[in-house]
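Sample entry follows:

_____
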Amino acid sequence: MSTKSSRPAVPPFDLDRAWRLHPSVSIRPERFGALLYHFGTRRLSFLKSPALLQVVESLADAPTARDACTIAGVTDAELATYQRALATLATSQMIQEAPAA
């Protein structure tokens, strides 16, 4: 018997690369986390925790996404969950790899 998830497959996300918020994305902080709006694609994403918002906001200043997670206080036990969330944000073009320095 095969069990299929109803979720679409999300490509792997490299925590050891530099990432940033897409320049066309605006953040609106909320009690539950934040709303992200992409002006180019007109897509809306919900960040369901203040900690995930802190990770996303830390991406620009951190050398890697892993470092942004550390800055936000993400534990090793939580890292896989945040990696999946960042992968989803990358797939929806809310975040993108930072250009090489």
About this structure: Strands lie at 19-21, 25-30, 33-38, 43-47, 95-97.
